[in-house]
Specification:
The chain has 4 helices and 8 strands; from the N terminus they run αβββαββααβββ. It is of the alpha+beta class and 179 residues long. The protein has a single domain, classed as Sandwich (Immunoglobulin-like), CATH 2.60.40. The strands form 2 sheets. The chain has a 6-stranded antiparallel β-sheet with strand order 1-2-3-8-5-6. The chain has a two-stranded antiparallel sheet with strand order 4-7. β2 and β3 form a beta hairpin.
């Protein structure tokens, strides 16, 4: 089992260098600012100079049966069954006191569809990776999603409304646009 690409072991990489989702989560954490501004259920906000960083997460707790060691419905390729009622989490964050100006918002998303090498391997057929081409493909499609947009703040208010998939982690960076 240890020779398997995904054998359930700890670590940030597979044995052949494929980045796991927790690698990307640590990468997002490294982008946080040094000043904690606020925190709550599923989020915390930091600041560095004029830049804000918002870390969002949708923690899902496993079932009591799984906690007691019962793995009856979990298989090697279906590892989500210990989470009996996965829920989408909606977070609304109002930012007041911002300057009326343009800002750049960069979102980096890690979830089942983006940044999860395991889930992309399942999509690939959950079979052993046998060629360098297959490994390179898996590396290429197993990255977080990044979006970037420009917004204009009016009335010193910006309200962010986000829906997070189960197990999703998302970093939102807000930076003044210097034109």
């Amino acid at each position: 089992m240890v020779g398997e690409l995904f054998h359930g072991g700890l670590g940030l990489f597979t044995y052949n260098g494929l980045k796991k989702s927790q690698f990307y989560a640590f990468t997002l954490l490294s982008k946080l600012g040094s000043h904690l501004i606020a925190r709550g259920d599923g989020y915390f906000i930091t600041k560095e100079k004029d830049f804000f960083q918002i870390m969002l997460y949708n923690y899902q707790h496993y079932s009591d049966l799984y906690a007691s060691g019962e793995l009856f419905d979990m298989t090697f390729t279906n590892r989500y069954t210990p989470f009996p009622t996965p829920k989408i989490k909606k977070i609304i964050l109002p930012f007041t006191g911002l300057e009326n100006r343009e800002y750049i918002i960069i979102e980096t998303i890690i979830n089942k569809d983006h940044g999860s090498a395991f889930d992309k391997w399942i999509e690939l057929g959950a079979m052993p990776i046998e060629t360098a081409e297959e490994l390179e493909y898996l590396k290429a499609v197993s990255v977080p999603k990044i979006t970037k947009r420009k917004i204009t703040v009016d009335n010193n208010l910006l309200t962010l409304s986000v829906e997070l998939q189960p197990h999703e982690v998302r970093l939102i960076e807000i930076k003044p646009s210097y034109l």
